[in-house]
Prior knowledge:
The complex is a heterotrimer.
Chain A: E1 13-16, H1 20-31, E2 37-40, H2 51-54, E3 58-59, H3 66-81, E4 85-87, E5 90-94, H4 97-113, E6 119-121, H5 123-129, E7 140-144, E8 148-150, H6 152-165, E9 169-172, E10 177-183, E11 186-192, E12 195-198, E13 202-204, H7 210-217, E14 224-234, E15 250-253, E16 258-263, E17 266-271, E18 296-298, H8 305-314, H9 316-319, E19 325-336, E20 343-346, E21 353-357, H10 364-377, H11 399-410, H12 435-440, E22 443-448, E23 451-457, H13 462-467, H14 477-480, H15 485-496, E24 498-502, E25 507-512, H16 516-523, E26 535-541, E27 547-557, E28 560-565, H17 570-579, E29 586-589, E30 594-600, H18 604-609, E31 626-631, E32 634-639, E33 648-654, H19 658-670, E34 674-677, H20 679-689, H21 723-731, E35 737-743, E36 762-763, E37 780-786, E38 791-798, E39 808-813, E40 816-824
Parallel strand pairs in A: 1-2, 1-13, 2-9, 5-15, 13-21, 24-34
Antiparallel strand pairs in A: 3-8, 4-8, 5-7, 6-7, 10-11, 11-12, 14-17, 14-19, 15-16, 16-17, 18-19, 20-21, 22-23, 24-30, 25-28, 25-29, 26-27, 27-28, 30-33, 31-32, 32-33, 35-38, 35-40, 36-39, 37-38, 39-40
Helix pairs in contact in A: 1-6, 1-10, 3-10, 15-20
Chain B: E1 2-6, H1 13-25, E2 27-33, H2 39-50, E3 54-58, H3 61-74, E4 79-86, E5 89-94, E6 99-105, E7 111-114, E8 128-131, E9 143-145, E10 160-164, H4 175-184, E11 187-190, H5 192-196, E12 217-221, H6 227-233, E13 238-243, E14 256-259, H7 262-277
Parallel strand pairs in B: 1-2, 1-3, 2-8, 3-7, 4-7, 10-11, 10-12, 12-13, 13-14
Antiparallel strand pairs in B: 4-5, 5-6
Helix pairs in contact in B: 2-3, 4-7
Chain C: E1 2-7, E2 9-11, E3 33-35, H1 37-53, E4 56-63, H2 68-77, E5 81-86, H3 93-105, E6 112-116, H4 127-135, E7 139-149, E8 152-159, E9 162-169, E10 172-176, H5 188-194, E11 199-203, E12 211-217, E13 227-231, H6 236-246
Parallel strand pairs in C: 1-4, 1-6, 4-5, 5-11, 6-10, 7-10
Antiparallel strand pairs in C: 2-3, 7-8, 8-9
Amino acid sequence: MTDSSALPASARAVVVGAGIVGNSLAYHLARLGWRDLVLIDKGPLPNPGGSTGHASNFIFPVDHSKEMTQLTADSVRQYKEWGVFTESGGIEVARTEERMQELQRRMSSAKAWGIEGCEIITPARVKELVPFVEESVIVGGFYTPGVGIVDSLRFGTIAREKAQELGALQVFANTEVLAIDVEGGRVAGIRTSKGDIATDTIVVCCGVWAPKVARMAGASIPLTPAVHQMIDVGPVPHFKDTKGVIEFPIVRDMDTNMYERQDGSGLEVGSYAHRAILHDPEDIPSNEEAALSPTELPFTQEDFEKQMEDALELIPEVLNDESVGIKYAINGLLSLTPDGLPLLGETPEVKGLWSAAAVWVKEGPGVGKAMAEWMTSGESEIDLQSSDIARFYECQKSRTNVRARAAEGFNKTYGIVHPAEQWESNRGVRLSPFYEREKALGAVFYEAAAWERPHWYASNEKLLEEFGDRINMREAEWESRWWSPIINAEHLAMRERAAMFDLTAFCIFDVIGPGALECVQTVSMRQMDVGHGKVVYTPVLSPSGTFKSDLTVMRLGDDHFRVVTGGAHGMADLKWYADHAPDGTTVIDLTSGWTTLGLWGPRSRDILASLTRDDVSHAGFPFGTCRTIELDALRVLASRISYVGELGWELYVPMEQGAKLWDLVWEAGQAHGVAPAGIGVYGTTGRLEKCYRAFGFELDADFTVVEAGMTPPKVKGADFVGKEAHLRHRDADPIAVLCTLTVDDHTSSSGAKRYMLGREPILAKNGSRLVDAHGRGSYVTSAGAGPSIGKHILMAYLPPENANIGEELLVEYLGEQYPVTVQTNDATGVFDPENTRVRA
Amino acid sequence: MSVLVFMESADDELSRQALTLAQSLGDVRAVTVDGPYAPAAWAAAIVEAAGGDDIVGPGSDRGNEVLAHVAAQLDLPFAANVSEVRGDELTRIRWGGTLLEEARLHADRRLLTAAPFAFVASVESTQAQVLAPNLDGAVAVVDHVAPDTGGKVSLADAKVVVSGGRGVGSADGFGILEELAGLLDAAVGCSRVVTSAGWRPHSDQVGQTGTKVSPDLYIACGISGATQHIAGCKGAKALLAINADREATIFAHADYAVIGDLHEIVPAIAAELRKVKGS
Amino acid sequence: MRILVCVKRVPITGGRMVLTADAQAIETKHLGFTISPHEECGVEEAVRIVEAGGGEVVVLTLGPEEAAEQIRDCMAIGADRGIHLVSSEEWDAQATAAAIAEAIRGEEPFDLVVFGNESADAGGYQVGIRVAYALGLPVVTGLKGLTVDGGRARCEQEVPGGRDVYDVALPAVVTVKEGLNLPRYPSVPAKLRAKSKPLDARPVERPVSKLEKLRLVVPAGSRKQAEILGEGPGAAPRVVEVMQQLGVA
């Protein structure tokens, strides 16, 4: 049958995929003024047959992640605005005591992010709310009254219609992408089964098909389709008188990785408990071939056997009833990513090719809005940085890594995931040149950006004796997990003598060319037109004056700058600089070319001096400068800065000389009592004592430079991203103030001492939340030991009226409240506040 | 080559199609059978009348049943619902017609039934010999019950069928289809999805395992066009499909199409009919 | 009563047939499996009869190893025992009937042997009838109604205009059609019980096919170009015009 309307020859943007994300994005783009939009899907409407079409459609608002909670809350707001949200309430039940502790953490997150009405409830109360639950198998529950279900297909239809009413959007169903034209590294057009459209912007919103479509353009969207099973049983006698779709709260049986929700006269039972069943994006059946839809695949009975038994245990009243039949059973397809977060933003490989994939119904509308804002003005109201698709290194995009991590993460969907929990699969991919030395020293390796990095060293156990009761031991299992008191001992050894740090995971890239200064000036907040050999620590701002990153820049020449940034976010930083590079300027990734050894502590100069004839005195090698020095056989780029608040240097050599560098410094350091130290010190204890902020913890898109207490004395004359906003912030009073607090008393009700790990809510002495004028609740951005001051340190943004030195407040941890006191309300460290050590 | 063709009656449509198939295979003798239906006995009579000839029958329920009995009695292979014969090779219907099987018959005689509507009904007049089977001890029809249709048109006989699929949405949703059917003196049909959901009884089901209809007009509302459904309505002289999905498979089998929401379109057609009828 | 129901594993197809590269079978890598719709009603009917009057329901299939899944599904509806004649090859109807008859002879006699009228895939319309001849039993086909009482079966066969009624003495073979009943969905406990019911699997060797499948072919589309009468309710006048032209309005 021939189509009555044809595809336009060109479009401002083409959105591929009419699931919850594509529909929402099309609407928000139209709302923000975009015109000549085209939305295509290879399936029919309103249900093209993707994951949205068979989704369970329920939303639990509380997540441990701040961003996901914000996106979910915004999505709920949007679903409610268009009348497609039905509140039902939801209960996460616990079958074990270990899970009860996790529910306390849920409660904590609810308070931290401001989700109202949540409470921990008894089995009896669970039974009251959900009468068909078997009370005897549970020990409690976490009740969120705001849980509800949505009609995601209806939302999508309304979104399309509204965009069409604005005259902004044309929609074409049954239109399949065949190819994407790329010219000069940027999108030029899209070819479909119904014709070609010239465009410079394509957004890939097609979920499990996204990798296939991206590959057409030569880009990578690293997700894998994966199965999650669900069955529908009915008719359920309990639901006989139900008037709507749902009248009973949804139950998440966390310990069995399952959920049960009412669906009219039936009960839907879903599972994330089975073995990971991964599919290939190139091998998904077409709409015609599939018996139900391309993402509703045949049910594999054997994978659900255990789940049937588990569900029977929890809901025997319904499931043991022989008259309740299994009417529907599928292996449903959804998208999984290597780190469990969505894939959002412009792909680093192809300009104009955007990704909005691996997004669940519960955050779909929020992502659509945020993506539209990002595409329009370069940033979004809700921080999407943890989901930036540019975050991956090449090796992380490999099929092996995607599948291994997706499989490992799948069974943790309702899991108890410790904040410091490490991945087990696909380890040992990126090894620093120091690796063998570290292994020999008993390094306990944690992974970051696919690098193996020592977190602490078993060989330092002897230091525990040396420092005796200055080492804080932890009693409770939870905070002792993924931690060791050795970290504190390494910290003290560093402060006393010196320590060596493996910093190979730094992301390093050079900006070279006639426009290099312009590039770094535009992106960096601080003055970049400095002398050769200057090292500048600078925030990187978004247009609204909040943080996109913080990093250091070394000026190596007139037209040559070297940017050094944390491994976790480095690739996104690189893209940001590259996006601002004028013609003729190159941004080149040198991460795999240079290795970095950190050497800090009062004896660090002695150690260095013993290896070099160059002047490394304080006068001869000032703080904040860098130069090439010769350490014995090696020429080393030494940079005198410190993230741990000590005298010392970052030492850079070409990768292949790393082992030699280690050996030289190690040998020279023996006489001075040098110790190897891990990221436990570098990333936590060292910086917390100095109140140094960390990106992704204190610094993110929610807070301004002024609120973070990092206002520079002057603002450079040159223009930079976020300058206008920053100037306004300087003139105004901050809405929140970043403070550092210490814990006064760790004693819990059981008598055991407890230690916070981060993200706990900070409360007033009367137990109420502290909320600033923008509605942001106070929460612990970083937590850790301060061994030199013998205190446990927390950082948090507080409303100005509470941001007073000496202010007494509370932190709530696992359901109990502990007294804390504000120590600083600016960037002054709680250890060595005058910075004498750094400038020694 | 001599062929015996079993006809349910001289003017039965499918039997006349079988006659066409038989005529393509050789010299034809036609037979009908008299008396109460008793498949084993009828088959025995046909076997005797056929001698060593090929035997062809219509691809109706009764034709397939009788020929199967013939095959069992002769212990010979039997190809049901054949659409083409080429010597000892033939093509037969699978999956109600949505898949074809090319096969080779290893036997001295062919036992075949003609796939419905694979052949054009023969217009030649025929003199069919009437066989009288031996009914002693035979399993035979002893009674006949007419269904209590409440005066409604039967699906198999209706000149117009208004049929609904998943798109109708619920049992209540069929109200508008019944309304339209009433105005057209039509029968209401449905797809297997609908009967499995319990919205309509199986007697309304049109499809491979339901009733096969051949109305003058088949109106498919909210039916996607799954192969097993098409198998039941491809006998229709004209098919009008009403569906919101422009690319639904049903449209590949339709003569007329209306794109849109059936819940708006069906009542509009009913209203237009009333206007035209002046009521 | 002892009832045997014979079932066949068939794929659940979508809107389009896709064949394997060698055109010998439907490509099933994305498809689930079930038993023919007629047979579902056969199993349901057998279970109901035994639920009412006692006895045993045995399910038999001739099929690949994976067909054990279908036997377990029947057990989850209420069948008590399964017999699996295992063969990965495709058998023609004549050979299938012979193997089934052979297997039945090895069992205690059944009062009723139930088949689907025809299988959803091959649609041969003959296996049940051939088995009846092999066992010397009467056979009635295409049942939409079945009542068993006092050693006799009252069978209702759908014909144009109503139903023909047969009355046969048991033991007998019947073939049934979808619509005989509305099959139940298995409950969760029934599914779990099905796992441990007895299933006797034995390999069988396929004889030479007398109706030898050479290949499968997807028929060419009807090449119909549907005439679009309009979009939405506005198309109603044009629709009625066409109806008048066709002589139905």
